[in-house]
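Quick question, first post here. What does this chain look like in 3D?
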Amino acid sequence: MNLSFCKSSTSEEIRNEGRAEGLTEGLLIVLEARGIAIADGFREQIDTCYELPLLRQWIARAATATTAEEVFATGRCPTCGAAGQVAF
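> Answer (accepted):
Ran it through. Tokens below.
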């Protein structure tokens, strides 16, 4: 059985997209559970972000934040352009 695809860059991209989707879903769940509202336009930016470190940072902040501004205070996603300071 040829397993070269499993080690390819395309395969890694597919896995990273799946990881990002999971982190995005987790972020939205944490925000919802904490009662932090996110505007639909910004929610779309979250959904299109595939930068794992930035998504992890947002989740960590969401765990203790009381506002969306605290969660997204800094950073800009190089993939989707989501910025830390976004007008809600």
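The mean pLDDT is 79.
DSSP finds four helices and no strands in the chain.
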